[in-house]
Amino acid sequence: MPHEQSAAPDDSALTPLRRRIDDIDGQLLELISERARLAQEVGRVKHARGEPVYRPEREAQVLARLAQINAGPLPAQSIRAVWLELMSACRALEAPLSVAYLGPEGTFSEAAALAQFGSQIETQPCASIDEVFRSVEAGGAGFGVVPVENSTEGSVNRTLDLLMGSSLSICAELALPIEHCLLTQTGTLDGVTEVAAHPQALAQCQAWLSAHAPQVARVAAASNGAAAQAAAKTPTLAAIAGLGAAARYGLKPVAQAIQDDPHNRTRFQVIGRVQTQPSGADHTSLILSVPNRPGAVYDMLAPLAEHGVSMTRFESRPARTGQWEYYFYIDVAGHQLEPRIAAALEALRTRTAFFKLLGSYPVKA
């Protein structure tokens, strides 16, 4: 029997809708091109003034405004994603932006860099957090992205120690949900004798590992990306990393979402030499120390209460003097240029033995 051809679908209802979408796409392209030309003009003005191309507070304001006026049906998260890439592409027309992060490719630090800057950047994976700082300090990268705190395991102490001695400022902050996966070459634990990950990731998954892979030895790696890279070459090695690393290195998940806390999140900070202006949703970070005497910490914090400043983070780190002295890492809500914040900071300067302002910056939830 001759092959019977199926009847062509009736597109009478879809054709006018598709034509309308094509018309709108053309209009959008014209508007995007106009926006890009304006971005180029902004770049020329900034260059003439000696101003940086990347202004995190301005981009934060743009995204916040669009989320506020968005009437749907796209959710605010989708609108932010679209405009982030648009701003990233327009920014790249002004000047290429180099961003260092804890590598190799496939780390959550890389994901944070892309979530902050968009994909139109020159990424610079580094072997350590120290190298991220060194690259930005030496001018090899314009900005760096470093992990500062995890909701399960607390602060990343190496980042805190480097902030103490660095001339760089914190320019922006964002928090990412962290979903850890156990990855191997085969997608099983057959023949696997070790699991590698960054020490923070191993700690975040210790209950799952103890319950499901107690026989597998745990090995610390410089990063989850480095662990995934090694697992791709070693059939007896499993890695804890994200699905992005699995795709990057050809690994298969044994299990997903193995972190002990289902709401696991990590805060990342952007470091650079940009001094941001107020965005309307900012934090300010400080490092302080006081003499070791009764009531010293209470006296140190009093100016915050006196000026109505909310403290969002308070953490101590040993001063390493052998005298049981500490540095206090403090975040407050607000920007250093706001009058009440400026007054509180000035009072803190007079009451502390050590005062370092790390920067004021927009916060992205």
UniProtKB/TrEMBL annotation:
General function of this protein: Catalyzes the Claisen rearrangement of chorismate to prephenate and the decarboxylation/dehydration of prephenate to phenylpyruvate.
Keyword terms of this UniProt record: Amino-acid biosynthesis, Aromatic amino acid biosynthesis, Cytoplasm, Isomerase, Lyase, Multifunctional enzyme, Phenylalanine biosynthesis
Organism: Piscinibacterium candidicorallinum
GO MF, any single term: prephenate dehydratase activity
Catalytic activity, as annotated: chorismate = prephenate; prephenate + H(+) = 3-phenylpyruvate + CO2 + H2O
Domain Chorismate mutase: 8-98
Gene transcribed to yield this protein: pheA
Residue ranges constituting the Prephenate dehydratase domain according to the UniProt record: 98-273
Segments traversing the membrane: none
Main subcellular location of this protein, as a coarse class: cytoplasm
UniProt-listed PANTHER family: PREPHENATE DEHYDRATASE P PROTEIN, PREPHENATE DEHYDRATASE-RELATED
Name of this protein: Bifunctional chorismate mutase/prephenate dehydratase
EC number assigned by the record: 4.2.1.51, 5.4.99.5
